[in-house]
Design a protein that fits this description.
The protein is α+β, with helices and mostly antiparallel strands and 106 residues long. The protein has a single domain, classed as Alpha-Beta Plaits. The chain is 28% helix and 31% strand. The chain has a four-stranded antiparallel beta sheet with strand order 2-3-1-4, covered by helices on one side.
Amino acid sequence: MPTYRVLVRGKFDRPAGAVREKLLAEASDDLAGLSFSDEGTLTYSRHLGGFGFRVRIDVAAGEGAEQRAHDDAELWAMDLLEREGYPYRDLTVTSTCLDDVRTARR
């Protein structure tokens, strides 16, 4: 089962009022939020332009594994954003298969 680190990027679509205040209250400059986790991590800056949703996903091996990882991550990000009431647009998805990453030996 290959593991993918997937990054879903997008833009907030003009959050206003209480939604904007909630986003600003939860904004963090903490670099710990930049990790890829099994439950997913939403990160953004205080200017509320773009955001990133980082998640680690295991998918069944075979043809289309990367696309399944992309689709799952995009759906998770959309679910989180809609559940929180955050308006969004322009989603893009990129990933890295951890099985393909080679480490240098010393």
